[in-house]
Amino acid sequence: MAVDGCGVVCKYILVIFNIIFSVVGLAFLALGLWLRFSDGTRGIFNVEALNSSAFVLGVTVLIVLGSVMLVVVVFGDYGACSEKRCALQTFICLLFFLAVAEVVVGVLAYTSRDEVGHRLGEFYVSLYTLYANNNDPALAITLTFIHNALHCCGVTGISLVEIVKKTCPKPDGFMESLVMANCPTTILNVFDRRASLVLGVFLGTGALLITALVCSIILLKHIKRSHHAVTTYYSTVY
């Protein structure tokens, strides 16, 4: 059976959406796996005291979210291309829950940006303290990665007293050779400055999911109508 008119338009919109969604899902999954197994961050997951940290939870969410998105794409592509109602109905349910989750998480992250920033800062302090106590080489690599990514140095930023200064980035000038931005404050400021961007990304993704949800419902109705027309025709003929 084949759909026509608006159903065809929605079908191709869903195909394009699933291509974009699969790319984003692969990106999330790849980023999560890279953060989980790269030399710079792998050591965090081997430290029991950090297993409940915001970073570990964030990486786990990336891996799970990327995997779920790829599963959703499978149902969406199969349902749209083959015009299978069962697959489309499953796709619609998954899209609905994802759209609601995207909007809720985005709003919560924005309204609780200070708390999230503080949690990330606390995670850094825990990492810093563990390294100061045992000088674990894996934690040194992780601290070096964070320091270079954020261009900050330890919890004080003062090179004369900073005990992790060998993991800090090279100073940009004379003043930074004496005092560099400390990492807990830098983490809080970075997250606070980019909170609006994070909210925009979540809401934009939610709007995209809702658009795909509407197109899926329209396509499903057209498939049902087409199926009913074919059934009526054969019942009349035979």
From TrEMBL:
InterPro entries: Tetraspanin/Peripherin (IPR018499), Tetraspanin_animals (IPR000301), Tetraspanin_EC2_sf (IPR008952). Disulfide bonds join 153-168. It is found in: Endomembrane system; Membrane. This is Tetraspanin. PANTHER family: TETRASPANIN, TETRASPANIN-1. Coiled coil: none annotated. It is a multi-pass membrane protein. GO terms for cellular component: endomembrane system; membrane. Keywords: Disulfide bond, Glycoprotein, Membrane, Transmembrane, Transmembrane helix. Interacts with SLC19A2. Interacts with NTRK1/TRKA. The chain crosses the membrane at residues 12-35, 55-75, 87-110, 138-161, 197-220. It comes from the Eukaryota. Pfam families: Tetraspanin. Belongs to the tetraspanin (TM4SF) family. It comes from Oryzias latipes (Japanese rice fish). SUPFAM superfamilies: Tetraspanin. Structural component of specialized membrane microdomains known as tetraspanin-enriched microdomains (TERMs), which act as platforms for receptor clustering and signaling. Participates thereby in diverse biological functions such as cell signal transduction, adhesion, migration and protein trafficking. Regulates neuronal differentiation in response to NGF by facilitating NGF-mediated activation of NTRK1/TRKA receptor tyrosine kinase and subsequent downstream signaling pathways. Plays a role in the inhibition of TNFalpha-induced apoptosis. The lineage of its organism: Eukaryota, Metazoa, Chordata, Craniata, Vertebrata.
